[in-house]
Amino acid sequence: MRNRFKNPNISIMIIGVPKEIKNNENRVALTPAGATELVKRGHQVFIQHTAGEGSGFTDDAYTAAGAAILPTIEDVYAIAEMIIKVKEPIEPEYKLIKEGQLLFTYFHFASYEPLTKAMVESKSVCLAYETVEKADRSLPLLVPMSEVAGRMAVQKGANYLEKPLKGRGILLGGVPGVLPAKVLILGGGIVGTQAAWMAAGLGADVVIMDVSLQRMRYLADVMPANVRTMMSNEYNVRNLIKSADLIIGAVLIPGAKAPHLITRDMLADMRPGVVLVDVAVDQGGCIETCKPTTHENPTYIIDDVVHYCVANMPGAVPYTSTLALTNATLPYAIQIAERGWKKAAQLNPELVPGLNIIHGDIVYKAVAEAFDMDYVPVEKYLVD
Ligand SMILES: NC(=O)C1=CN([C@@H]2O[C@H](COP(=O)(O)OP(=O)(O)OC[C@H]3O[C@@H](n4cnc5c(N)ncnc54)[C@H](O)[C@@H]3O)[C@@H](O)[C@H]2O)C=CC1
Ligand SMILES: CC(=O)C(=O)O
Ligand SMILES: [Mg+2]
C-alpha cells in the first residue's frame, strides 16, 4: 500500500473484483457506485471482464466510474492487494490466492473443511462478511442477505409444495372453507423473521421456534396473529414436525457449525411431500439430512420429504441482492482500503471478529473448533 497525498495515515490500495464462479451466482461484490467511491479516494479498482453483467452492470459502467477492466480471473488475483468477492473462493481459485493477500467475502468456514485448510495454506488474510459483528451482536454484513434468503425461503417452499414438484400439493394460504398450510420456522433471527412475514402475508399458519425468550417476546409483539412462537427444544420440534407442511431452517450460532434440530430419524414422522428449506445450509445446515445443492439442481428427496438446500439463495435475485449486499459492505471496504486490514480492525472493533484466518493461523475460535484445528487469538495480529 502506498501513502495517499500528504496524510501518512491514509493509504491507497489495489482492489480486485473477480467474477463469481459458484453455480448460478450472479451477484458482484462492487457496483459502479462503489467503484466511484473507492476511485475518488485514490484507490485503484480492477474488475474482471463481465463480473457485473449478472447484476445488470456493464464493463462500460465500471470504466466510466474510473475502474479498469481485466480480461481474466488470474489477472485480477495477480494484481490485487484486496480481493472483494461475494461467495467463498471455489477450488479453482485456491491456487490464485497470494500470501498476504486480503480476501473480503463470505466464507462460512465451519461448514467446509477443505476451504478452511486451503485458506490456511494460502497464508492469506480472510475477513469474513458473516462474522463482522456490531456491539449489539448483530451481523451487519449477513443481515441483508438473510433478509433476501428469508423472503425467498417462502417463495421456494410454496413452489416446491406443488404436486408436480413432488410436494404435498397444498396452497400456503388455503382458500375460503379450506385451512391454510402450516409453516414451521426454526430460528427467529433475520431469516426466520423475514420468512414469517412472507408466510403470514400469504395466510399460512406459522410457528417460529427459537431458544431466545427475548427474541420471541419481540416477535410476539410485532407479528400478526397467524404467527405464534414456541420454545425450541427436541420435544417441541418432534411434536410440530408431525403436522408441518413447510419447515424452514434458520438457526445460527455465529461462525460455528449449525446444530441439527431435525435428525435423520425425524423424517419418518413427517408427512409425504413435506418441504424442508434449510437456509442455514451455509453453516452446515440445521437439518441432518441437508447437504448443499445448487440453483441448477436445488432439491432432492429422502423418505418422501423434499429438501431444498441452496447455499447461495440470494445469487438467484442479483438485481436485489447485489445492491442490498454492497449497501452494507462498501463502508467497511472503504475503511479497509484506507487503513489496511490491521489498522482498520484496530480502529473499528466490528471488523475484529470478521478476521477468521491470518497468515496461516485460524483466529476465529468456532472455526478452529469445528475441525479440531489450532486456534490463535486474533490479538496476536492486532498489536503494533
Ligand atoms: N442459504 C443461503 O443462501 C443463505 C443462508 N443464510 C444463513 O441463514 C442462517 C440464519 O441467519 P440469520 O437469520 O441472519 O441469523 P440470526 O443470528 O439473525 O438468527 C439466528 C437465530 O437462531 C436462533 N437459534 C440459535 N440456536 C437455536 C436453536 N437451537 N433453536 C432455535 N433457534 C436457535 C438464535 O436465537 C437466533 O434468533 C445463517 O446460517 C446464515 O448464514 C443467510 C443468507 C443466505
Ligand atoms: C449469506 C450467504 O452465504 C449468501 O448470501 O450467499
Ligand atoms: Mg414419512
UniProtKB/TrEMBL annotation:
One of its GO terms (cellular component) is plasma membrane. Substrate binds at residues 27, 87. One of its GO terms (molecular function) is nucleotide binding. Its EC number is 1.4.1.1. The active site is at residues 108, 282. NAD(+) binds at residues 146, 210, 215, 232, 251-252, 279-282, 310-313. One of its GO terms (biological process) is L-alanine catabolic process. InterPro entries: Ala_DH, Ala_DH/PNT_CS2, AlaDH/PNT_CS1, AlaDH/PNT_N, AlaDH/PNT_NAD(H)-bd, NAD(P)-bd_dom_sf. Belongs to the AlaDH/PNT family. This is Alanine dehydrogenase. It comes from Mongoliibacter ruber.
